[in-house]
Specification:
The complex is a heterotrimer of chains A (163), B (341) and C (499).
Chain A: H1 5-25, H2 29-55, H3 77-101, H4 103-117, H5 122-144, H6 153-162
Helix pairs in contact in A: 1-2, 3-4, 4-5
Chain B: H1 3-28, E1 40-45, H2 52-67, E2 72-77, H3 84-92, E3 99-102, H4 107-113, E4 126-132, E5 135-141, H5 149-154, E6 159-163, H6 169-181, E7 185-189, H7 195-202, E8 207-211, H8 212-220, E9 224-231, H9 252-266, E10 268-273, H10 279-294, H11 296-305, E11 312-313, H12 314-325, H13 329-339
Parallel strand pairs in B: 1-2, 1-3, 6-7
Antiparallel strand pairs in B: 4-10, 4-11, 5-8, 5-9
Chain C: H1 3-14, H2 19-35, H3 40-48, H4 57-82, H5 91-102, H6 106-131, H7 135-140, H8 144-156, H9 158-161, H10 166-181, E1 183-184, E2 191-192, H11 206-225, H12 242-251, H13 253-268, H14 277-287, H15 300-324, H16 330-342, H17 348-352, H18 355-384, H19 391-410, H20 415-431, H21 437-460, H22 468-498
Antiparallel strand pairs in C: 1-2
Helix pairs in contact in C: 1-18, 2-3, 2-4, 2-18, 3-4, 3-16, 4-5, 4-6, 4-15, 4-16, 4-18, 5-6, 5-15, 6-12, 6-13, 6-15, 6-18, 8-21, 8-22, 10-21, 11-19, 11-20, 13-14, 13-15, 14-15, 15-16, 19-20
The chains are: A mainly alpha (163), B alpha/beta (341), C mainly alpha (499).
Chain lengths: 163, 341, 499
C-alpha cells in the first residue's frame, strides 16, 4: 500500500515518542520518571493511530480543530505538493538570508523577492519591503540602541572595510 | 679598589638594573583610555533584566562611561542555565577589551564539580573587580521549634531546606555546610526564586539559607529567625546577636570547607572580561572600575537603591578566585563528592 | 492607612502628571508589542525596564503596567486575523477566533475579543482589590501538593480541547509535556533532552514554539490554498461586524464574569503560571456552553471566555507578586526585577504603608484596559478587512514578524530554526486534524506539574494526595473529566430504554 502524507505524519509521532523513551532510559530514576510516564502511553497511542491510519481511507479522518471547511476545495495533490515545496523553499531561503547577512538585509531582500515572484507590482513590493525594514530599523536599531543579529558575512565585510 | 670589590659592585649594578627594569616595565603599562573613545562597550549580564546582577551592572555601567571618556556602555542580558550561558558567552567573546560581564560567583562550585555545559575556566578570565560582599544567613521559620543553631546541629530529624535546584549555589552551599558542620541538612530542590521563602512561611520546611539582603523582608517582618551568618560578618538589623560561622568549632577539613564558602561569598557582584585582553585595555577597565566604585555620586545612588558596596579590584579578586579553585587535590575530590550527591 | 483612603488616594496618584502621561505613552507601545506576533509583553517589559532607572515608584508602575496590561488585548488581533497569536496565551484565542475570520466574521470576533479583554481586565483588578484582606491565608494554603493538583486539573482540559479525537489530543499534550522537560532538571541537575546542543540547555521558550506552530503553519497553509484568509467575499453581512461582537460579549455577561474570576484565581495562585489561564477558561467555556457543537468552527463564546481570562489573570498575578515577591505569571517575574530598580520591596509593607500604591496599580489596570480598547475599537473594523487581503502580501509580513519576534524573545538566533521546525509540525497538525491547543497546554503546565510532584513526594510521600485542598481539587478534576462520559453513558442508556 502506498504511504500517504498522513501516514508519514503518524509515523513521526511514533518516532518522536520512541526517541524520548530511549533517551529517558539513560537518565537517573528521578529524571526519567515523569518523561516515561508521559511518553510510554503516548507511544502506544501513536502506534495505534498509525495502525488506524493505515487502515482507513482519507474521508474517515476524525476532525479535531474543525476550522471552517466552507467549500471543501479539493486541491489536486500534485498542485498541493508543488505549492508545499515552494513555500518550504521560500522559508528556507529567508532563514538562509538571515544567517548570511542578518535581519536588516534579509528582510527587504526576502519581501521584495517573494512579492515579485508572486506577481505583485514593483511599487507595492518596494513599499512593503521598505516599510517593514524602516519600521524595524527605527524600533530596534534606533529605539533600543542594540544590534539585531547580523549574520556571518556582514561582520566579515565590516572588518574587511576597516582594514 | 680591590678586584673582588669591583666584581661585587658589578653584580650589584646588574641586580639593581634587573629589578629596576621590572619596575619600569610595570609602570610603563599605562591604562589605554584613548582606545575607548567613541567605542561601544558591551556589559553582559548573566540574568534577565531586573534583579540584583542587572541593577548593579546598570549602575556600574553608567559610571564606567564617565571614566572611560567617549565610551558608551550597553547592557546585554544573556540569561540561562543558572548564569552558565552568560558566563560562557563572556568567556568566548572577542578579547578586544570591548566586552565585560558579570555572573554568579557560585559558578566556582559548578566548575569544581564539572557541571555539564560549562565552557569556561574561571582561572583564565581577566578579572576587573567585584562590587560587594554577601552576608548569607541560616534562618528558621517563626513556627519552627529551633531556638539556636546548636538545636539545629543536635536535631535528630533531617532538616529539610528548599533549594532552587541541584547544581545551584544554594544547593551546593547547603551540602558543603552540612558536611563541614556535621549537620543533617536535607536540601529539597525545585523551589525557584522566592518560593523557598514562601515554603518557610507556610511551615512546609523549617529552614533555609540565603543572602541577607534577599531575606531582609522576611527578617524584618519577623517571619523567621536568623540563627547563623556566614560570608561577610555584619551586625545590621536582625544580626546583632547572631553568631558567625567562623566561631563554631569544627574539624580542620570542615574549617577549610567553611573558608571556601566564606571566600566565595565575599566575591559578590564580580565583573570580568574574556581571557587574554591586551594589558593596557584591561588596566583601563580596572582603572575606570575603581574610579566608579569610589565615586561619591555612585555610592549615593547605590545606597538609594539599597545596593551594598564593598569593593575589591583587579589582582586582589583574581587571587580570591584562584585561591578558591586551586585547592589541594584531596579537598577538590571531597568537594566534588559532596556536591555531586 | 485605611482601605477607603488608600483606594481614593491610589486613584488620585494615577491621575496626576507625569504618571498618567507615562501610562498613556506606554499603552500604545504595549498594544503594538502585543499585536506583532512573537514580540509580546515580556520582551516589551525587558526593553522598557532600563528606562525606569531613576523614576519614582508610581511613575515606574504607570510606565510598566500601562504597557503590560494591554499586551494580551493587542495579541488577540493577529490571533483572529491570521491565526497567529500575538503572545503565548493568545494561542487560545486562535482556536475560535480564526475560524470566525474564515467565515468572514473577523469584525465580530475582534469586537468580542476587545470588549471581553477590557471587562476581564477590570474584573480581574476588582478581584485583586477584594482579595487583599484575605490574601495571606489563601495564598499560604496553596503549596506544592495543591499546585500539582491544579496543574493536573489544567491538563485534564486537554480532553476537552481535543475535539473528536481524544487520542490525538493526548498525543499533542504529551509532546507539549515532553517539550517542557527539555533543559536543566532542578531535581537532578542534569540537562534533559538537549541531545548535546547548547542551545537547548535552557529549554525551549514557549513563544518560539507558538510562533512556529501557529504563524508559520498558517503561512504554509495560506501558500498552499492561496486566495484570501476569509473564505467569503465580503464583510458587510449583517451580524458579522464589530458591533455584533460587542453585543455578544454583553449577552454572555455571566460567562465573562466566570472566566474573569477563574482567570484571576489562576493568576493569583503562584506556582501555576498564569499562562495556562486562557486555555483552562477555553475548556470551561466549552463545557458550559449550550452550543458545544459550534466550538472548533468559530464560536464567539470561545473568544469571549479566553480573552476575559487572559487579561483578568494579570490582576490576580499582581497580588502574590506584591505580597510575597513570588510572581504569579511570567510577566510578573520580570516586573519583580523592576521593583528592585524602583526601590520598592514586595512584602507586608506594601499592604500596610504603601496600600495606596497597591490601589494605584489596581486603578492602572482598570484605566489602561479601558483606554486600550477605546484605542483599538475604531481600528477593529478596518483591521478585519485585512482578512480580505491577498496571501502574497500577508505571507511575507507574517513570516517576517513571526521569525523576528521569535528571535527577539530569546536573543538566540538558533531559535528561528526551532520555530521553522514547529511550523512544519504545526502545518501537519492542521492538515491531519491534530488539535494544537493541548500541545501548548502541555508546554505551559508540564514542568510545573513535574516539579510540584517531586517536591510533594519529597516532603510528604504519597500521602500528599490526601491534603484537604489538594484532594478537593482532585475530585473536581475527576468530576470534570468523567462527568461528560457519564452523561453520554446515561444518554445512551435512556435511548435504549426508550425503544
Amino acid at each position: 500500500m502506498k504511504l500517504q502524507n498522513r501516514h508519514y505524519f503518524s509515523l513521526f509521532w511514533v518516532l518522536f515518542f520512541l526517541v524520548i523513551i530511549v533517551t529517558s532510559l539513560g537518565y537517573s530514576y528521578k529524571a526519567r520518571l515523569i518523561p516515561l510516564v508521559v511518553s510510554i502511553p503516548c507511544f502506544i497511542f501513536a502506534v495505534y493511530r498509525f495502525y488506524v491510519e493505515l487502515r482507513t481511507k482519507e474521508e474517515e479522518n476524525a476532525t479535531a480543530e474543525g476550522g471552517h471547511k466552507s467549500k471543501k476545495e479539493k486541491i489536486d495533490p500534485v498542485v498541493r505538493r508543488k505549492r508545499f515545496i515552494r513555500i518550504i523553499l521560500w522559508i528556507l531561503f529567508f532563514l538562509a538570508l538571515i544567517f548570511a547577512v542578518g535581519f536588516l538585509y534579509a528582510i527587504p531582500i526576502f519581501v521584495l523577492s517573494y512579492m515579485r515572484a508572486n506577481k505583485e507590482s514593483w511599487a507595492l513590493s518596494v513599499l512593503c519591503a521598505g516599510g517593514m525594514t524602516a519600521a524595524i530599523y527605527l524600533a530596534f536599531i534606533v529605539g533600543t540602541r542594540s544590534t539585531l543579529y547580523e549574520g556571518i558575512f556582514i561582520p566579515l565585510i565590516r572588518q574587511a572595510l576597516q582594514q | 679598589m680591590g678586584k673582588q670589590t669591583k666584581i661585587y659592585i658589578i653584580i650589584l649594578v646588574f641586580v639593581l638594573y634587573f629589578f629596576g627594569m621590572q619596575g619600569v616595565t610595570k609602570a610603563a603599562v599605562q591604562p589605554d583610555l584613548n582606545f575607548y573613545k567613541g567605542k561601544l562597550v558591551t556589559y553582559i549580564v548573566a540574568t534577565k533584566p531586573g534583579g540584583g546582577y542587572d541593577t548593579y551592572a546598570r549602575l556600574i555601567g553608567k559610571y564606567l562611561q564617565k571614566y572611560l571618556p567617549g565610551s558608551t556602555v550597553i547592557i546585554n542580558n544573556v540569561p540561562g542555565a543558572g548564569h552558565i550561558i552568560g558566563a560562557n558567552t563572556l568567556y568566548k567573546a572577542a578579547p578586544d577589551g570591548l566586552t565585560i560581564g558579570t555572573f554568579n560567583t557560585g559558578l566556582i562550585y559548578s566548575q569544581i564539580v564539572g557541571q555539564e555545559g560549562i565552557q569556561f575556566d574561571l582561572r583564565k578570565f581577566s578579572w576587573i573587580g567585584k562590587a560587594s560582599s554577601e552576608t548569607r544567613v541560616f534562618i528558621v521559620g517563626a513556627k519552627a521549634p529551633y531556638r539556636t543553631f546548636k538545636d539545629i546541629l543536635e536535631s535528630k530529624e533531617p532538616i529539610k531546606m528548599p533549594s532552587s535546584g541541584v547544581g545551584s549555589q544554594d544547593h551546593n552551599e547547603t551540602m558543603i555546610l552540612a558536611y563541614a558542620l556535621g549537620a543533617k541538612f536535607q536540601p529539597v530542590p525545585g523551589y525557584a526564586g522566592k518560593e523557598g521563602e514562601m515554603a518557610i512561611i507556610r511551615g512546609e520546611v523549617p529552614a533555609t539559607i540565603g543572602s541577607y539582603t534577599g531575606l531582609i523582608g522576611m527578617i524584618k517582618a519577623k517571619e523567621c529567625r536568623v540563627l547563623l551568618q556566614f560570608g561577610a560578618k555584619r551586625t545590621h538589623a536582625g544580626l546583632e546577636n547572631v553568631p558567625h560561622i567562623s566561631e563554631l568549632k569544627v574539624s580542620p577539613t570542615g574549617k577549610a570547607l567553611i573558608n571556601l564558602v566564606n571566600n566565595v561569598d565575599l566575591i559578590g557582584r564580580l565583573t570580568a572580561a574574556p581571557p587574554n585582553v591586551p594589558v593596557a585595555r584591561l588596566e583601563a577597565l580596572r582603572y575606570a572600575y575603581k574610579k566608579t566604585l569610589t565615586d561619591p555620586d555612585f555610592r549615593k545612588e547605590a545606597e538609594k537603591l539599597g545596593l551594598d558596596i564593598d569593593p575589591a579590584y583587579g589582582d586582589e579578586v583574581k587571587k580570591m578566585v584562584l585561591d578558591a579553585l586551586n585547592q589541594p587535590p584531596e579537598n577538590l575530590k571531597l568537594l566534588k563528592s559532596i556536591i555531586s550527591q | 492607612m485605611s482601605l477607603w483612603d488608600a483606594i481614593w488616594s491610589g486613584l488620585a496618584g494615577v491621575l496626576t502628571w507625569p504618571a498618567f502621561g507615562l501610562m498613556l505613552l506606554t499603552i500604545p507601545i504595549g498594544l503594538i508589542f502585543g499585536i506583532i506576533p512573537g514580540m509580546g509583553g515580556n520582551m516589551g517589559l525587558a526593553l522598557l525596564i532600563p528606562f525606569t532607572f531613576g523614576m519614582k515608584p508610581l511613575e515606574g508602575f504607570a510606565f510598566l503596567l500601562g504597557m503590560h496590561t494591554v499586551v494580551h488585548t493587542g495579541g488577540s488581533i493577529p490571533a483572529i486575523l491570521f491565526d497567529t497569536p500575538g503572545t503565548g496565551p493568545n494561542a487560545a484565542t486562535c482556536i475560535e477566533g480564526f475560524p470566525m475570520a474564515q467565515k468572514g466574521e473577523a469584525g465580530r470576533a475582534l469586537g468580542a475579543a476587545l470588549t471581553s479583554s477590557m471587562l476581564g481586565g477590570i474584573i480581574g483588578a476588582i478581584f485583586m482589590a477584594l482579595i487583599i484582606p484575605v490574601l495571606r491565608p489563601v495564598v499560604l494554603a496553596f503549596g506544592p501538593p495543591e499546585f500539582f493538583m491544579l496543574a493536573m486539573m489544567g491538563l485534564a482540559f486537554i480532553s476537552l480541547m481535543s475535539g473528536k479525537s481524544l487520542l490525538k489530543g493526548l498525543m499533542a499534550g504529551g509532546m507539549g509535556l515532553i517539550i517542557s522537560f527539555v533543559g536543566m532538571d532542578p531535581q537532578t541537575g542534569i540537562v534533559r533532552f538537549s541531545f548535546g546542543l547548547l542551545q537547548l540547555m535552557d529549554g525551549i521558550n514557549i513563544v518560539t514554539i507558538v510562533v512556529g506552530l501557529f504563524a508559520l503553519a498558517e503561512v504554509i497553509d495560506m501558500a498552499i490554498k492561496g486566495g484570501t484568509i476569509a473564505h467569503t467575499k465580503s464583510a458587510d453581512i449583517k451580524g458579522t461586524g464589530v458591533w455584533q461582537g460587542i453585543k455578544d460579549t454583553f449577552t454572555h455577561w455571566w460567562l465573562v464574569i466566570r472566566t474573569s474570576i477563574i482567570g484571576g484565581i489562576i493568576g493569583f495562585i503562584p506556582g501555576l503560571g498564569g499562562d495556562a489561564a486562557a486555555f483552562i477558561c477555553y475548556g470551561h467555556a466549552l463545557q458550559t456552553s449550550k452550543r458545544k457543537e459550534e466550538f472548533g468552527k468559530g464560536c464567539v463564546e470561545g473568544v469571549i471566555g479566553v480573552d476575559a481570562a487572559h487579561n483578568a489573570k494579570e490582576g490576580g498575578a499582581l497580588i502574590p507578586t506584591l505580597a510575597f515577591g513570588v510572581p504569579g505569571s511570567s510577566g510578573m517575574a520580570i516586573l519583580l526585577g523592576a521593583f528592585m530598580i524602583l526601590g520598592v520591596s514586595p512584602g507586608k509593607e506594601m499592604f500596610t504603608q504603601n496600600l495606596n500604591l497597591v490601589f494605584s496599580m489596581v486603578w492602572i489596570l482598570v484605566i489602561a484596559n479601558i483606554i486600550a480598547v477605546i484605542l483599538c475599537l475604531p481600528f477593529a473594523g478596518p483591521l478585519s478587512k485585512i482578512t480580505f487581503l491577498r496571501t502574497s502580501v500577508m505571507i511575507p509580513f507574517i513570516l517576517v514578524c513571526g521569525i523576528l519576534g521569535s528571535y527577539l524573545t530569546t536573543s538566540r538566533i538558533s531559535d528561528i530554526i526551532i520555530t521553522a521546525i514547529f511550523g512544519l509540525i504545526g502545518y501537519g497538525m492542521k492538515r491531519f486534524d491534530y488539535a494544537r491547543g493541548p500541545l501548548i497546554l502541555g508546554i505551559v503546565l508540564g514542568k510545573i506539574a513535574e516539579n510540584a510532584l517531586h517536591i510533594s513526594l519529597n516532603l510528604y510521600g504519597l500521602k500528599f494526595i490526601f491534603r484537604p485542598i489538594a484532594f478537593i481539587i482532585l475530585v473536581i478534576t475527576l468530576g470534570t473529566v468523567l462527568y461528560p462520559a457519564y452523561k453520554e453513558h446515561m444518554k445512551k442508556k435512556l435511548a435504549e430504554e426508550g425503544r
